[in-house]
Amino acid sequence: MQRRFLFLVALVVIGFAGAAYFFWPVNGPARNLNLTGDVVRGNYVIRTAGCVACHTDIEGGGAYLAGGLPLKTPFGDFIPPNITSDKQAGIGAWSLEEFSHAMSNGISPGNKHLYPSFPFDSYTKMSDQDMVDLYVALMASAPVAQKAADHSIGFPFNIRLSMQGWKRLFFHPERFTPDISKSGLWNRGAYLANGPAHCGACHTPRNIFGAAQTDQHFKGTPTGSKPFFPAIDAATLKERGYDAETLVDALTGGFDPDFDTLGGAMGEVINESLTHWTPEDLSALAAYLLDED
Ligand code: HEC
Ligand code: HEC
Questions:
Q1: 43 in a structural domain
Q2: pLDDT tens-digit profile of 174-224?
Q3: Could you tell me if 240 and 152 lie in one domain?
Q4: Are residues 148 and 238 in the same domain?
Q5: What global pTM score does this model have?
Q6: Which of 112, 124, 137 is nearest to 45 (CA)?
Q7: Total count of domains within the chain
């Protein structure tokens, strides 16, 4: 009898420990948000971070950042919401801390777990200064009083709490750490590609749970998969015939080594993000992608 009781106690303890493990918040290192934000710099971060491509219905001529077209995934359709400064329909009522928490840990006010179709697993790497600049620029954006539509996703993914377990297993919030054996230019490129510009959101393959396979960084999806994303690791890009100059050319709407322009989802990244980058940041991106410095 007593042994059976002990066994039950052990089961309950293990159960609680398991639940606590899964439901313990997954938060990254604290940020220093006590910085002065700058709207001009922040508007540039909006571009390097590609917020416009998702949060604006470009095809339908929708208002800037007022909500985007559905992102189709195997789990359902996710609608990027209105992130203008409108206090009801957008995020105008959010504090800087709340905004940073959503971007860095994937949690919105009211403890709402965000889906990783919003690439917070890349944005968590952004610098504190970029985060603060981004916030002041969004707060200065034109308010749009129209809410975006709701997601249409199936059970059990429509339960936001399920994302807590996902985060526990697959999300590692952290800031970008430079590689001191590389140049400043290379590190700027690495920061942009893996932080704000979230290139891996498409070019790093995902497992069946939709989590990036970090050991396959930038290795693309297998040939024939739909959607298909090519590999953009240094060896593959060089094999394809890119050098720093031709890569920047292709990434800003020019020709790739096959004399084609890059289209589809990449066309949007080019139009809404890369063509707005400074020449220095494009050189940095190329130096990092080709691993040359
Ligand atoms: C790949 C597409 C994509 C990109 C790029 C993207 N977002 Fe989002 N974002 C989404 C989706 C989808 C959601 C909804 C997630 C959810 O409901 O859990 C979202 C949600 C958010 C939220 C939470 C809003 C709320 O009401 O809870 C904020 C804030 C946000 N995004 C800001 C940004 C900013 C700022 C950028 C640029 C730095 C950005 N997003 C880039 C797709 C994207
Ligand atoms: C929303 C998904 C998405 C994101 C984000 C994205 N890409 Fe792409 N990328 C694609 C697709 C799709 C293609 C294939 C385009 C084509 O063949 O027309 C592509 C093609 C490319 C190519 C051409 C590769 C070749 O074999 O010629 C390069 C280089 C590239 N992307 C670099 C980047 C970089 C750098 C970033 C981050 C700044 C990035 N991509 C972000 C979807 C994306």
A1: yes
A2: 999 999 999 999 999 999 999 999 999 999 999 988 889 989 999 999 988
A3: no
A4: no
A5: 0.94
A6: 137
A7: 2
